[in-house]
Design a protein that fits this description.
With 892 residues, the protein is of the alpha+beta class. Helices cover 64% and strands 7% of the residues. Helix 5 crosses helix 6, helix 25 packs antiparallel against helix 29 and helix 26 packs across helix 27.
């Protein structure tokens, strides 16, 4: 009969057992060495989630060339009585604004802004409240606080004859009350103008993953002052603190992550009825995070939310699976009456091939992510592969070896009730302290995590071993009681294969239906998919959508580069802007006249100069009559405006420099045309906006290239970048999944020397992926940077379960009389380990599903479901496939 095993494996496991002390010592030494880069070489920059491309390059050029000196976060103020135009709400807001302007720390950062209503400068902001107060003071009434309600009402109405409600920052829900003959606005919006350079400079975009939170901290401090006592108003900052919120919610999820690890360790201990299993696995898990972070830092992986949180959690799941199978097989051999050392040699020889194949197939599955081209996903693939390698060695080899080393030294005996309580207490304490070391190493203080691990080993391993040896007793409850497999499960699995002629077609139909739904899962990443929906960050965005409507939205830009001094280029830009203003669409914010709100950039500057005599005289000299179709005149306008702004308007030099850039060479210019996109939290709205505007942008670029062959026009900005990133994630998923499956097949087929068994092993992967994404579609989960990792992990878990079951089946075929008996023995042995491992992981991830941060709760839910699907496929579908793949008399 052919064999699939490597003949050297028993010798290897015997050598490991013989040198167990040195192996454990070397593992401890490696852990100590890797603690150095973990502690001292932590990355300082964050991995990019951008796939690269034209839209990202264009945004980089905007951030480099068209940077404003004004950092202007948005704030929204709601009135508790529903009307911000009532005197109590306006008075409180004005009081808080004056507190801000008088704050000794914050006021130094505030800039003066023009006030078109009164023609004077205002510090920090010029809200509708400021406008009304300034007008009323000009009328001699003493301002909002001192005027009558009727005068305030009449002044508000008069002000709205000069400026529209959108320009004044009124809510989209604002209305004119005919009965009261007064305007009612439930909210007001305004920006705070701060010195961008003093806050670190650079782009004003606050995006997740930024390493510098100076601007976010400033914006939060401003929010605190603006809130004051909040007696009649409520104040919200709009998207001002995404990275601070992420860090805080990550900390809030910490207890749930900790409970996940504690639950996994305790369930492992319960499964094997052993304190030593808990204590040793706990040490292994705490050491694993040192291996992962130490190796990651050594090779220079950048910081990343997925790498920091998701990879360690996945590592625990994979590592416990390795431990379950290695310890489980050791226990089976021990239950047959073999002493610990012999049981390890035989059990490890039987399972190490499957463990290595599981590691190798998982590794190629995760390394398939290198095809994504996205730094964050590439880092995920590399880090997960490192985690797998560490888990295979530490929990798959060293942990059972350490268990044997302990159990051989400690004779077995039953315990009294008091001793049992001490054992249970010790196991619980070990799980808690091991988890504390893990959490400290991941989130808080890596150096302290290492110290806790050292204390843990001394307190929960070295000291108990010494105490038990001195007493001549044992600290475990069972040894042989926990071995022997799950015979009922074996009979159940064997029974299922008798109905394979019905089962397999039924599963096939179910999977086809699931696949039809799976392909409908869309890319989506709203803030509520990342942060707690009840958090201030998400609530503020909800209120912004409510009160802005189609009057505003998220900033997007058309970046234009080329020789913009040519009259033909200016004409093309002007025609483009006019076409944009007249677009019959609701995808762009509109002003009080109903036209699309647009910041015209270079062409707006040229038009503003030619539109007023003061500006024309300032640029060309008094009484000059410049030719608007002259490249020289246009160049003069650009040079003057960049230095002085546009006289006679509220466009100062800083505003010009945020819209226009001139290079060192003649004819080298860039500008941005700004738009506001409503409803960008829904990606389909961004897609529609792009579909409507990109043909116009392509036409503009074509016209500009007739003048300057190197000209470019690109639609970019934060909403466009976000959609492009998610599109790239989906593309990466579509590409990496089939690559993963093919690589897993090649590894499995090569290792088992059988194309047939290689195909059988990868079949459950396809089922699990189809079922998982169908579940995501049914329950409203979208594909994003986090949920996309579930696809890769599902391949890893699915192939692991299938490999362990298949390898055990191939072994049982060599000792059982027929295929059904081999299936039954496999189900009782490895099937029991699969169920126990799956149950432990599922229980842990179900706890994580209750985390307040959807990033973690979604990962917990989907991972738990994925593991359930994987073990179901391995126990319900795979046995029938194996019956087709094998014959009673040979293995191929």
């Amino acid at each position: 009969m052919a064999t699939h095993r490597w003949k050297a494996i028993p010798q290897v496991t015997a050598a490991l057992e013989k040198r167990s002390g040195p192996v454990i010592a070397v593992t401890a030494a490696i852990t100590a060495l890797l603690a150095v880069p973990m502690v001292l070489m932590e990355p300082t920059s964050t991995a990019s989630q951008d796939p690269g491309g034209t839209v990202f390059d264009a945004q980089d050029r905007i951030d480099e060339r068209l940077v404003s000196n004004v950092f202007d976060p948005i704030y929204l103020v709601e009135a508790r009585n529903g009307n911000m135009l009532a005197k109590p709400a306006l008075t409180e807001l004005l009081t808080n604004l004056e507190e801000l302007r008088g704050d000794p720390n914050l006021s130094a950062m505030l800039l003066e802004v023009p006030t078109p209503v009164a023609g004077l400068a205002s510090v920090g902001t010029f809200s509708a409240a400021d406008a009304l107060n300034r007008v009323l003071k000009g009328l001699g009434t003493g301002g909002v606080a001192a005027t009558s309600d009727n005068t305030l009402r009449l002044t508000t109405n008069a002000l709205l004859n000069v400026q529209g409600p959108v320009e004044l920052g009124f809510s989209a829900q604002a209305r004119f009350d005919q009965a009261e003959q007064a305007w009612v606005s439930p909210a007001l919006l305004f920006r705070i103008a701060a010195d961008n350079a003093a806050l670190g400079g650079g782009s004003n975009l606050i995006q997740l993953g930024s390493d510098d939170t100076t601007k976010e901290e400033f914006a939060r401090e401003v929010l605190g002052v603006l809130r004051g006592e909040e007696e009649t108003i409520e104040v919200w900052g709009i998207g001002i603190d995404v990275n601070l919120t992420s860090a805080e919610q990550g900390e809030a999820a910490g207890p749930f992550i900790a409970l996940t690890i504690v639950a996994v360790l305790l369930l492992v201990g319960y499964t094997f009825r052993s304190y030593w299993v808990v204590a040793i696995c706990g040490a292994g898990i705490a050491a694993l995070i040192i291996w992962l972070k130490g190796l990651s830092n050594l090779i220079g992986l950048e910081k990343d939310q997925v790498l920091t949180v998701i990879v360690p959690i996945a590592m625990v799941s994979f590592g416990i699976d390795f431990a379950f199978h290695a310890i489980g097989r050791y226990r089976e051999e021990e239950a047959s009456g073999l002493p610990p050392r012999r049981a390890f040699i035989i059990g490890q020889a039987a399972v190490i091939g499957a463990l290595f194949l599981a590691f190798a197939s998982d590794a190629v599955a995760f390394l398939a992510n290198l095809s994504s081209g996205i730094e964050s996903i590439i880092g995920f693939g590399i880090a997960t592969t490192l985690a797998l390698a560490a888990a295979f060695f530490v929990l798959g080899i060293v942990t059972p070896l350490a268990l044997v080393h302990v159990e051989e030294r400690i004779p077995y005996r039953r315990h009294s009730g008091t001793t049992n309580l001490l054992v249970l207490t010790g196991a619980f304490g070990a799980a808690l302290v091991a988890t504390a070391s893990f959490m400290l190493s991941v989130f808080l203080a890596p150096a302290l995590g290492v110290v806790v691990l050292v204390v843990y080993v001394a307190a929960f391993l070295v000291l108990p071993i010494w105490a038990v040896e001195r007493r001549g007793g044992a600290a475990q409850q069972e040894r042989q009681e926990a071995g022997g497999g799950w015979p009922r499960l074996g009979r159940l699995v064997a029974a299922s294969v008798r109905y394979r002629a019905v089962l397999i077609p039924g599963i096939l139909v179910l999977t086809i239906v699931a696949a039809a739904f799976a392909v409908r899962v869309e890319a989506e990443f709203d803030a509520k998919d990342f942060f707690d929906p009840a958090s201030e960050f998400v609530v503020a965005l909800d209120l912004f959508d409510l009160h802005v409507g189609d009057q505003g939205g998220e900033q997007a830009d058309i970046y234009v580069e080329g020789d913009l001094s040519r009259p033909g280029a200016v004409a093309a830009l002007n025609a483009f802007v006019e076409r944009m203003k007249a677009l019959p669409t609701d995808r762009f914010a509109r002003d009080d006249t109903g036209a699309v709100q647009i910041e015209a950039g270079a062409v707006g500057i040229v038009s503003a100069v030619f539109a007023n005599v003061e500006a024309t005289d300032a640029v060309f000299g008094s009484g000059a009559d410049p030719d608007p179709n002259s490249a020289a005149a246009i160049s003069d306008i650009y040079a003057f405006a960049l230095e002085n702004g546009v006289p006679g308007t509220d466009t100062d030099a800083d505003t010009v420099r945020s819209q226009l850039w001139a290079g060192a060479n003649p004819g080298e210019y860039a500008t941005r045309i700004g738009l506001l996109l409503p409803g960008t939290r829904t990606l389909s709205n961004i897609e529609v906006a792009r579909e409507e505007i990109e043909p116009l942008i392509a036409g503009l670029e074509s016209q500009l290239r007739e003048i300057d062959p190197d000209a470019m026009a690109v639609f970019t900005g934060s909403p466009i970048l976000r959609q492009s990133s998610l599109d790239a994630v989906v593309r990466a998923l579509v590409i990496s999944l089939p690559i993963s499956v093919v690589l897993c097949f090649l590894v499995a087929a090569g290792f088992m020397r059988s194309v047939r068994f290689g195909l059988v092993v990868v079949m459950p992967i396809l089922l699990v992926v189809a079922w998982l994404y169908a579940f995501m579609y049914a329950f409203g989960f979208g594909v994003n940077l986090v949920t996309a990792t579930i696809g890769a992990i599902s391949i890893g878990i699915g192939i692991d379960f299938a490999i362990h079951f298949t390898e055990r089946f191939r072994h049982e075929l060599t000792v059982q009389p027929d295929r059904v008996s081999a299936i039954e023995a496999t189900g009782a042995g490895t099937g029991g380990s699969l169920v126990a491992s799956a149950f432990s992981s599922i229980a842990g991830f179900v706890i994580l599903a209750f985390a307040p941060m959807p990033l973690f709760s979604a990962f917990g839910v989907l991972t738990a479901v994925m593991i359930l699907l994987a073990v179901t496929a391995s126990l319900l579908v795979l046995p029938s496939l194996l019956m087709f793949a094998a014959r009673d008399d040979a293995i191929f």
